[in-house]
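Thread: quick sanity check before group meeting

JM: Hey all, I'm pulling together slides for Thursday and realized we never actually wrote out the predicted structure for the chain we discussed last week. Dropping the sequence here so it's in one place. If anyone has concerns about the input, flag it before I start.
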Amino acid sequence: MLTRTVGFCLSAKKWRKMNLSAFAELCRNHGIDVVQIDLSRPLPAQGPFDIIIHKLSDLMVEAQYNSQSQQLLASFQEYTAAHPYTVLLDPLPAMRKLLDRFVSYRIVGRLQTAIPGDQVCCPPYVEINTSDLEEIQEAISRHNLSFPFICKTQVAHGSSSHEMALIFNEEGLKDAHAPCILQSFINHNARLYKVFVVGSSHFTVDRPSLKNFPLGPSDSKTIFFNSHDVSKPESSSHLTELDKEMDWPGPPSEDVISTLVTDLQAELGMSLFGVDIIINNETGRPTVIDINIFPGYEGVPEFFSALLHHIQSILKDPPPQGAEREETQDLDHTHAPTHGPCCPVSSHVKPPSNISVTSTL
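JM (edit): ok, ran it. Output follows.
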């Protein structure tokens, strides 16, 4: 009997946090072996793999300045190049786009004009590549941004990417350290909607978020915060406490979410990602504030079943002629169509259908 193998290339911390040992047991009950990949060991000895599911975003960031990370990433890319029929979830070129907030916001900006009916938008923003305050002020004026601003790092992943600042006036612009994004703050009644995508399914959960602040410049000092801490499911930060009782904005409509997810998958060719959405409390318009690579799927009890379904749907596709393998074949033999850099993503990733949404309110 042909054994199908899925490799997970994740940090030990993420493996434990997502309880993937339980998912591995679920897969075994369906005839699929799960291997926890160790990048410090030769990959051929751990495979072969029909599918590799990974979150190499942190490694990709570290590879920009760390030689050991560069070597680990190079070895991984060499392996996928030598095994072009291994499905890679998700493709590294797409992940590189989302590692850069400058690029990801441009993508959302393009989708904003492509989706009919002004259904979604992103907040006005400006890319800052200078520490010169006059240049920053000129760029803010040119892009018609208004205080307060959220300041975010250009790098969208890694430990520092969650460190943000809320800037209320020109004096506070000294706290914007380039390269960064300055994004107009949108009041949204302290609710964030996280859309978690798993192949052809997506799920929406609500989280705490920043409370409302008066629009326009004020004398308030810059507020520094960690977005991960503020938007934890159990967060009780003073930054999320509204000054008065207000109705929570309802989640974006299913039509809006479905269209957005479909367009993002077509743009990125990715299967496992998240979208952070707020609802403008003045206009009621859904506003995309971030796109995340392989999020934690907290609050999505259906994650295991959705991921297993996605894996099974990929494994249903037979390998190209001549690419079949048996358990006794050499470990370097190739198999199963790829989503990786050696094969066009568009030939394998299809727009989602039969979208399901789980709303936890």
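AS: nice. The mean pLDDT is 85. The first helix runs from residue 12 to 17.
JM: adding both to the slides.
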